[in-house]
Description:
Helix content is 28%, strand content 30%. By secondary structure, the chain is of the alpha+beta class.
Amino acid sequence: MTTTKVGKKVKPWLVFLKCVSRHSRARSVIPKMLYAHLEGQEYWLFAPQGEWIVEKPQGYRLQGADDVAIADNISEHLQLRLAVEETLISFYCLDTGEKLLIPEELATELAAERQRRTELEAELVPYCDLFGDLTAE
Length: 137
């Protein structure tokens, strides 16, 4: 089944991530038939408070009519490793091991990079005074 958006075909979602709690537990078990109907290949359940899912996150791959538990927390389709850090789920690139940053982390990293650039530019001032603008042609 290919999903359509106003007559335009788009790729189906291959991976689903559902946040759950003990209050939503009864509604949290979504039939694998629904994921299969939506052409999903993996689905993950994540309880930020760790209330009823012991292994966080809990992932499954659909293989035919069966759903097989994902033991290594690696999403084959996303090429990411999922990990829980406090109450957040983090994603790490398989090829580099780098964490995909959330907006707050990106803002902090950007501020640190700007500060470092300012410091480096200040270090160059004496050299520019001595040798002139070396970037001019």
